[in-house]
Protein backbone atom coordinates (compact mmCIF):
# COMPACT_ATOMS: atom_id res chain seq x y z
CA UNK A 1 0.00 0.00 0.00
CA UNK A 2 1.39 3.33 -0.94
CA UNK A 3 1.66 6.37 1.28
CA UNK A 4 -1.14 8.02 -0.62
CA UNK A 5 -3.70 5.34 0.13
CA UNK A 6 -3.11 4.93 3.82
CA UNK A 7 -3.49 8.61 4.61
CA UNK A 8 -6.69 9.80 6.25
CA UNK A 9 -9.05 12.01 4.30
CA UNK A 10 -9.46 15.58 5.45
CA UNK A 11 -12.82 17.28 5.46
CA UNK A 12 -12.93 20.34 3.28
CA UNK A 13 -15.53 22.55 1.80
CA UNK A 14 -16.20 22.66 -1.88
CA UNK A 15 -14.62 25.61 -3.63
CA UNK A 16 -17.00 28.12 -5.10
CA UNK A 17 -16.37 29.38 -8.61
CA UNK A 18 -14.64 32.73 -8.54
CA UNK A 19 -13.65 32.89 -12.18
CA UNK A 20 -14.44 35.60 -14.66
CA UNK A 21 -17.54 33.83 -15.99
CA UNK A 22 -20.67 35.58 -14.84
CA UNK A 23 -23.58 33.40 -13.91
CA UNK A 24 -27.03 34.41 -14.97
CA UNK A 25 -28.92 32.03 -12.78
CA UNK A 26 -29.27 31.98 -9.03
CA UNK A 27 -27.66 29.22 -7.05
CA UNK A 28 -24.24 28.15 -5.96
CA UNK A 29 -21.58 27.10 -8.43
CA UNK A 30 -18.64 24.95 -7.40
CA UNK A 31 -15.34 24.03 -8.95
CA UNK A 32 -15.08 20.26 -9.26
CA UNK A 33 -11.80 18.70 -8.19
CA UNK A 34 -9.98 17.13 -11.09
CA UNK A 35 -7.07 14.94 -12.01
CA UNK A 36 -5.65 15.55 -15.45
CA UNK A 37 -2.95 13.43 -16.94
CA UNK A 38 -1.69 12.66 -20.35
CA UNK A 39 -0.03 9.80 -22.06
CA UNK A 40 1.41 9.74 -25.55
CA UNK A 41 -1.98 8.94 -27.02
CA UNK A 42 -4.49 10.92 -24.99
CA UNK A 43 -5.35 13.34 -22.22
CA UNK A 44 -7.58 11.99 -19.46
CA UNK A 45 -9.58 14.13 -17.08
CA UNK A 46 -11.23 12.78 -13.95
CA UNK A 47 -13.64 15.07 -12.12
CA UNK A 48 -15.52 14.57 -8.87
CA UNK A 49 -19.04 15.79 -9.42
CA UNK A 50 -21.22 14.15 -6.79
CA UNK A 51 -24.93 14.48 -7.45
CA UNK A 52 -24.65 14.99 -11.20
CA UNK A 53 -26.53 12.58 -13.44
CA UNK A 54 -25.30 11.80 -16.95
CA UNK A 55 -28.13 13.70 -18.64
CA UNK A 56 -27.42 16.81 -16.56
CA UNK A 57 -23.80 17.08 -17.56
CA UNK A 58 -22.69 19.15 -20.52
CA UNK A 59 -19.20 18.81 -21.91
CA UNK A 60 -18.19 21.26 -24.54
CA UNK A 61 -14.95 21.58 -26.46
CA UNK A 62 -14.40 24.42 -28.87
CA UNK A 63 -11.44 26.60 -29.68
CA UNK A 64 -9.32 24.50 -27.30
CA UNK A 65 -11.54 25.47 -24.36
CA UNK A 66 -13.06 22.51 -22.57
CA UNK A 67 -16.09 23.34 -20.44
CA UNK A 68 -17.69 21.09 -17.87
CA UNK A 69 -21.12 22.11 -16.68
CA UNK A 70 -23.05 19.84 -14.35
CA UNK A 71 -26.45 20.59 -12.92
CA UNK A 72 -27.41 19.25 -9.53
CA UNK A 73 -30.94 19.02 -8.27
CA UNK A 74 -31.38 19.54 -4.56
CA UNK A 75 -31.52 16.04 -3.08
CA UNK A 76 -33.75 16.99 -0.17
CA UNK A 77 -37.46 16.33 -0.40
CA UNK A 78 -39.92 19.07 0.48
CA UNK A 79 -40.92 17.46 3.76
CA UNK A 80 -37.37 17.48 5.13
CA UNK A 81 -36.24 20.04 7.67
CA UNK A 82 -32.53 20.79 8.10
CA UNK A 83 -30.92 19.68 11.32
CA UNK A 84 -27.43 20.59 10.27
CA UNK A 85 -25.64 21.31 7.07
CA UNK A 86 -21.94 20.92 6.55
CA UNK A 87 -21.78 20.99 2.79
CA UNK A 88 -23.69 22.95 0.23
CA UNK A 89 -25.07 21.75 -3.04
CA UNK A 90 -25.11 23.51 -6.35
CA UNK A 91 -23.96 23.10 -9.89
CA UNK A 92 -20.41 22.44 -11.03
CA UNK A 93 -18.61 24.50 -13.60
CA UNK A 94 -15.04 24.53 -14.78
CA UNK A 95 -13.15 25.45 -17.90
CA UNK A 96 -9.81 24.20 -19.14
CA UNK A 97 -7.55 25.47 -21.82
CA UNK A 98 -6.16 22.57 -23.79
CA UNK A 99 -2.87 23.14 -25.46
CA UNK A 100 -3.02 19.99 -27.55
CA UNK A 101 -5.07 19.32 -30.61
CA UNK A 102 -7.81 16.83 -29.78
CA UNK A 103 -9.39 14.36 -32.11
CA UNK A 104 -12.97 15.46 -31.51
CA UNK A 105 -14.53 12.37 -33.08
CA UNK A 106 -12.97 10.01 -30.54
CA UNK A 107 -13.74 11.78 -27.27
CA UNK A 108 -15.12 9.40 -24.70
CA UNK A 109 -16.97 10.43 -21.55
CA UNK A 110 -18.21 8.21 -18.76
CA UNK A 111 -19.94 9.34 -15.58
CA UNK A 112 -20.04 6.77 -12.84
CA UNK A 113 -20.86 7.22 -9.16
CA UNK A 114 -20.38 10.95 -9.44
CA UNK A 115 -16.98 10.74 -11.11
CA UNK A 116 -16.50 11.83 -14.69
CA UNK A 117 -13.84 10.18 -16.78
CA UNK A 118 -13.17 12.04 -19.97
CA UNK A 119 -10.72 10.69 -22.51
CA UNK A 120 -9.50 13.15 -25.10
CA UNK A 121 -7.40 11.43 -27.76
CA UNK A 122 -4.69 13.58 -29.21
CA UNK A 123 -4.88 14.30 -32.90
CA UNK A 124 -2.33 12.44 -35.00
CA UNK A 125 -0.11 15.39 -35.80
CA UNK A 126 0.43 16.35 -32.16
CA UNK A 127 1.64 13.01 -30.93
CA UNK A 128 5.23 13.43 -29.83
CA UNK A 129 7.85 12.05 -32.12
CA UNK A 130 11.23 11.08 -31.06
CA UNK A 131 13.74 13.41 -32.62
CA UNK A 132 17.00 11.83 -33.40
CA UNK A 133 19.99 14.00 -32.79
CA UNK A 134 22.77 13.12 -35.08
CA UNK A 135 26.29 13.49 -33.98
CA UNK A 136 28.25 15.18 -36.66
CA UNK B 1 -36.75 42.86 15.67
CA UNK B 2 -34.49 45.85 15.32
CA UNK B 3 -36.53 47.82 17.83
CA UNK B 4 -36.25 45.08 20.35
CA UNK B 5 -32.49 45.07 19.95
CA UNK B 6 -32.34 48.76 20.60
CA UNK B 7 -34.53 48.59 23.64
CA UNK B 8 -32.17 46.28 25.47
CA UNK B 9 -29.10 48.05 24.20
CA UNK B 10 -26.51 47.88 26.94
CA UNK B 11 -25.29 51.34 26.09
CA UNK B 12 -24.77 52.50 29.64
CA UNK B 13 -22.56 51.08 32.27
CA UNK B 14 -19.87 49.84 29.91
CA UNK B 15 -16.35 50.11 31.16
CA UNK B 16 -14.99 51.47 27.89
CA UNK B 17 -16.39 52.52 24.53
CA UNK B 18 -14.25 49.79 22.94
CA UNK B 19 -16.41 47.13 24.54
CA UNK B 20 -19.29 48.40 22.57
CA UNK B 21 -17.26 48.52 19.35
CA UNK B 22 -16.20 44.95 20.00
CA UNK B 23 -19.76 43.91 20.54
CA UNK B 24 -20.87 45.57 17.30
CA UNK B 25 -18.02 43.96 15.42
CA UNK B 26 -18.97 40.52 16.76
CA UNK B 27 -22.57 41.12 15.84
CA UNK B 28 -21.54 42.18 12.31
CA UNK B 29 -19.42 39.05 11.95
CA UNK B 30 -22.33 36.95 13.04
CA UNK B 31 -24.69 38.65 10.62
CA UNK B 32 -22.35 38.50 7.66
CA UNK B 33 -21.62 34.84 8.36
CA UNK B 34 -25.35 34.25 8.36
CA UNK B 35 -25.72 35.94 5.00
CA UNK B 36 -23.03 34.01 3.26
CA UNK B 37 -23.78 30.63 4.67
CA UNK B 38 -27.51 30.43 4.97
CA UNK B 39 -28.27 27.71 7.46
CA UNK B 40 -24.60 27.12 8.24
CA UNK B 41 -24.94 28.18 11.82
CA UNK B 42 -23.65 25.00 13.41
CA UNK B 43 -19.96 24.61 14.05
CA UNK B 44 -18.54 22.01 11.74
CA UNK B 45 -16.79 18.96 13.06
CA UNK B 46 -14.05 19.07 10.45
CA UNK B 47 -14.18 15.34 9.94
CA UNK B 48 -14.51 13.65 6.56
CA UNK B 49 -17.06 13.15 5.13
CA UNK B 50 -19.03 16.34 5.53
CA UNK B 51 -22.67 15.52 6.23
CA UNK B 52 -26.05 17.09 5.86
CA UNK B 53 -28.73 15.82 8.20
CA UNK B 54 -32.41 16.50 7.83
CA UNK B 55 -35.52 15.53 9.73
CA UNK B 56 -38.24 13.97 7.59
CA UNK B 57 -40.74 13.62 10.42
CA UNK B 58 -40.62 9.84 10.69
CA UNK B 59 -36.88 9.54 10.04
CA UNK B 60 -33.54 11.32 9.98
CA UNK B 61 -31.90 11.51 6.59
CA UNK B 62 -28.11 11.72 6.51
CA UNK B 63 -26.32 12.57 3.28
CA UNK B 64 -22.64 12.67 2.43
CA UNK B 65 -20.79 13.26 -0.81
CA UNK B 66 -18.53 10.32 -1.56
CA UNK B 67 -17.83 10.43 -5.29
CA UNK B 68 -16.59 7.19 -6.78
CA UNK B 69 -17.72 5.06 -3.86
CA UNK B 70 -20.30 2.32 -3.81
CA UNK B 71 -22.65 1.50 -0.94
CA UNK B 72 -20.91 -1.78 -0.14
CA UNK B 73 -17.56 -0.01 0.28
CA UNK B 74 -18.90 2.05 3.16
CA UNK B 75 -19.25 0.55 6.58
CA UNK B 76 -22.24 1.87 8.45
CA UNK B 77 -23.01 1.13 12.05
CA UNK B 78 -25.64 2.56 14.30
CA UNK B 79 -26.52 2.60 17.95
CA UNK B 80 -29.53 4.05 19.72
CA UNK B 81 -28.62 7.60 18.76
CA UNK B 82 -25.40 7.55 16.75
CA UNK B 83 -24.39 6.82 13.20
CA UNK B 84 -20.85 5.80 12.31
CA UNK B 85 -19.45 5.77 8.78
CA UNK B 86 -16.09 4.44 7.78
CA UNK B 87 -14.36 3.32 4.65
CA UNK B 88 -11.60 4.08 2.28
CA UNK B 89 -11.78 6.06 -0.88
CA UNK B 90 -9.45 4.53 -3.41
CA UNK B 91 -8.25 6.11 -6.58
CA UNK B 92 -7.00 3.50 -8.98
CA UNK B 93 -3.49 3.99 -10.25
CA UNK B 94 -3.25 5.02 -13.87
CA UNK B 95 -0.74 3.75 -16.37
CA UNK B 96 2.89 4.23 -15.42
CA UNK B 97 3.68 6.66 -18.19
CA UNK B 98 0.83 9.02 -17.27
CA UNK B 99 2.11 12.53 -16.70
CA UNK B 100 0.00 14.69 -14.45
CA UNK B 101 -1.16 18.23 -15.05
CA UNK B 102 -3.47 18.33 -12.03
CA UNK B 103 -3.98 16.03 -9.09
CA UNK B 104 -6.62 17.48 -6.84
CA UNK B 105 -8.73 14.43 -6.04
CA UNK B 106 -7.76 12.72 -2.83
CA UNK B 107 -7.86 9.15 -1.66
CA UNK B 108 -7.71 7.91 1.90
CA UNK B 109 -9.43 6.36 4.84
CA UNK B 110 -12.17 7.95 6.83
CA UNK B 111 -14.12 7.21 9.94
CA UNK B 112 -16.73 9.42 11.46
CA UNK B 113 -19.44 9.24 14.09
CA UNK B 114 -22.32 11.65 14.61
CA UNK B 115 -24.87 11.88 17.36
CA UNK B 116 -28.41 12.24 16.14
CA UNK B 117 -30.84 14.58 17.84
CA UNK B 118 -33.15 11.73 18.85
CA UNK B 119 -33.32 7.99 19.24
CA UNK B 120 -33.50 5.81 16.16
CA UNK B 121 -34.80 2.37 15.51
CA UNK B 122 -31.80 0.08 15.11
CA UNK B 123 -33.73 -2.45 13.05
CA UNK B 124 -34.41 -0.54 9.87
CA UNK B 125 -31.59 1.32 8.20
CA UNK B 126 -31.77 2.15 4.57
CA UNK B 127 -28.53 3.15 2.87
CA UNK B 128 -28.16 3.93 -0.79
CA UNK B 129 -25.35 5.33 -2.87
CA UNK B 130 -26.29 7.08 -6.08
CA UNK B 131 -24.23 9.44 -8.23
CA UNK B 132 -21.60 9.65 -5.53
CA UNK B 133 -23.98 10.66 -2.76
CA UNK B 134 -24.59 8.37 0.18
CA UNK B 135 -28.05 8.62 1.69
CA UNK B 136 -28.83 6.93 4.99
CA UNK B 137 -32.42 6.91 6.20
CA UNK B 138 -32.68 6.26 9.92
CA UNK B 139 -36.19 5.62 11.15
CA UNK B 140 -36.93 7.32 14.44
CA UNK B 141 -37.76 5.11 17.38
CA UNK B 142 -41.40 5.19 18.45
CA UNK B 143 -40.44 7.37 21.38
CA UNK B 144 -38.81 10.03 19.24
CA UNK B 145 -41.52 10.23 16.58
CA UNK B 146 -43.68 13.29 16.73
CA UNK B 147 -47.14 12.43 17.91
CA UNK B 148 -50.31 14.11 16.93
CA UNK B 149 -52.34 14.86 19.98
CA UNK B 150 -55.94 15.36 19.21
CA UNK B 151 -57.90 17.64 21.41
CA UNK B 152 -61.46 16.62 21.86
CA UNK B 153 -64.04 19.26 22.07
CA UNK B 154 -67.01 18.60 24.26
UniProtKB/TrEMBL annotation, chain A:
Region described as Disordered: 1-25
* The SHSP domain, residue ranges: 25-136
CS domain location is 29-131
Where composition is biased (Basic and acidic residues), the residues are 1-16
Task: Please give the InterPro entries that the UniProt record associates with this protein.
Answer: A-crystallin/Hsp20_dom (IPR002068), CS_dom (IPR007052), HSP20-like_chaperone (IPR008978), Small_HSP (IPR031107)
PANTHER family on file: HEAT-SHOCK PROTEIN 20 FAMILY MEMBER
Stated family: Belongs to the small heat shock protein (HSP20) family.
Identify this protein by name: Hsp20/alpha crystallin family protein
Automatic annotation (TrEMBL), chain B:
Locate the coiled-coil region(s) and give their ranges: none
Q: Which InterPro entries match?
A: A-crystallin/Hsp20_dom, HSP20-like_chaperone, Small_HSP
Pfam families according to UniProt: HSP20
Q: What is the lineage of its organism?
A: Bacteria, Pseudomonadati, Thermodesulfobacteriota, Desulfobacteria, Desulfobacterales
* PROSITE patterns referenced in this protein's UniProt entry, alphabetically: SHSP
What the record says about family reads: Belongs to the small heat shock protein (HSP20) family.
SUPFAM superfamilies referenced in this protein's UniProt entry, alphabetically: HSP20-like chaperones
Give me the segments passing through the membrane. none
Residues in the signal sequence? none
The identity of this protein, by name, is Hsp20/alpha crystallin family protein
Domain SHSP per the UniProt entry, residue ranges: 42-154
Amino acid sequence: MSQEESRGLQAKEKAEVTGPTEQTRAGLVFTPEVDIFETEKDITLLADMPGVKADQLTIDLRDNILTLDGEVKSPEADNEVDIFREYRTGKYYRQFNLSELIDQSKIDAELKDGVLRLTLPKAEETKPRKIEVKAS
Amino acid sequence: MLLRRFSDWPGYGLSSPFDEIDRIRREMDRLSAGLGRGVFSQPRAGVFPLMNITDRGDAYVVRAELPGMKADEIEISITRDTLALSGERKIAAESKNAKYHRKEREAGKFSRIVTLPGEISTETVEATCADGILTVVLTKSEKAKPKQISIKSE
